[in-house]
Structure formats: C-alpha cells, structure tokens
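Hey,
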Amino acid sequence: MEKVDRPIRVLVAKPGLDGHDRGAKIIARALRDAGMEVIYTGLRQTPEQIVNAAVQEDVDCVAVSILSGAHNTLLPKINKLLAENDAEDMLFIAGGVIPDEDIPTLKENGVAEVFTPGTPTGITIEYIRSNIKR
C-alpha cells in the first residue's frame, strides 16, 4: 500500500429519519481528537446524499450512526450506491442500536464492522486505522 501523507478522512452520517445525533457527535469528536479529518453530514440524510458526500469529499471511511431501526434497509442501499459510484474501496462501518442478530446480515451486505452502544471510541479509531485502504 502506498503511504498517503494526509489525515484519514471520515464521513460521519445519520441516515433516515433518526433525529438523535449525540452518538454521532461523540464519535466525530473522538475521531478528530485522534487526528482524523471528519465531515459530519448532519441528521436525516438519504443514502444518495451520504454516498454523494463521501465521493465528493474523497473520504477513506464512511461511518453511519443509526438508531431508527431501518438499518437492514438503509445500510445495504448505501453499500450498493458506494459500489455503483466506484467507491467500494471506502471502508464502510456502522454504529448505533443494532440488534446482534442483524449484524451478520449487515456484514454480508457490505458493512465492514458494526459498533454497538458501549463500544469504547478507541476500538472504533483503531479499527478504522487498521482497515482503511489508501
């Protein structure tokens, strides 16, 4: 892998109708404190908006936070759109209230890792550092 001399760029997004973004803001701050460049898209983003922003910002990682229960619909759609936009090299991770039984299906549909409530931010930071493609 070639060495890139710039900070890791992470897009943090809140897909769907979920109106609670405290967790997204916490992880965004932790990633910034770890030296990463963070683009936060805000609440109520469509999969198309998320992928468009990820492509335009040329991020290394797309991190979505979802609490609404629509993860089985929205996350595979985001992954599909990443592939359609030749952006499948971007690490795609998710966090939030996602039942354990849904995680294997999400991983089969392109989500590299799922971080549930209580995961220390250091775990997420290290996962991103170890798994981005640059």
